[in-house]
Structures are given as structure tokens and as C-alpha cells.
Amino acid sequence: MPSKNLHDECKCGARKQKASPQCRKCYLSSVAAVKYSCSVCGKKRTKTTADICRKCYDEKRSREYLEGNMLLGDTYYVQGSQNKYTYARMHARKVAKKLNWINSCENCGFDRVVQVCHIKPIASFPPETPLNIVNHRDNIKILCPNCHWLFDHGEL
Predict the structure, then answer these.
(1) How many other CB atoms are there within 10 angstroms of residue 116's CB atom?
(2) Alpha-carbon gap, residue 152 to 36, rounded angstroms
(3) What's the predicted TM-score (pTM) here?
């Protein structure tokens, strides 16, 4: 049986895999020549796997993060994570960054490395709770790693 690594020549003279009709460079140049419209704003762009442009995608994600209308129970073990609350923590970091909450530690003022800390633990919320409640500003503290550890262990 032939190996998958056998190469053939493209029309341009570059080596390619036999299974593909053209080399990567020729494929990308043929795709770049065709312009597609973003399904949201209509702006012309090159073809990608998404049907919307990067700007519209970023705006959509920002709205989703800020609204946080996803339920906590729907985020458990997202994308094969081994920790049940990974998505909820990531959401808290994104919201804090987007709303410029992250400046310095609220306890000691250290500003090099800060973390998002939940005052009421995520595990204490029922699965029906929306993320915007879990990650509300009243439930978030911005702490340096040392103060975060002290807070989690009841020493702060």
C-alpha cells in the first residue's frame, strides 16, 4: 500500500500530495482571488470556514460574553475540559477584560499579575443560574495570585 507522504508536482512545479489537485500555494492564491461577502455586514472578504468577517465575529462574541444569558448547567465540561467550571471562569475573565475591571489587585494593589476571583463560589450556584448572575461584578474580586489564595482559604 502506498504511503500518504508520496508527492507529485503541481502545475506550478511545486511538490504536492497526490491526493490533492494542487499545491497549498496555488490553492490559497485561487481562493484569495475570489471575494465573498460577510453575511452580517456585507463587507467583501476572502473565503474562510466562517460565513462572517472577523470584526462581526468579535462583536458577536463580545455581546454573548456581556449578556451571558447561557445557563451555568449548559457550560459544564465545554469542549472536553476536565474541570466542570472552566467555561464559567473563562467567561468571567473575558467580561472583566472587556469591561476594564482588571487593573490591579483590590487588596494589595499589585498590578503585574491579577486573577478573577468569585466571592460566592461557582459550585454554590444551581445549574439553572445564568452566567451573567454568576459573573456579576458584585460576585467578582480582582486579586493577585497571593491574595486570591488567601481569600480562597479564608485568611483574607
Answers:
(1) 21
(2) 50
(3) 0.59
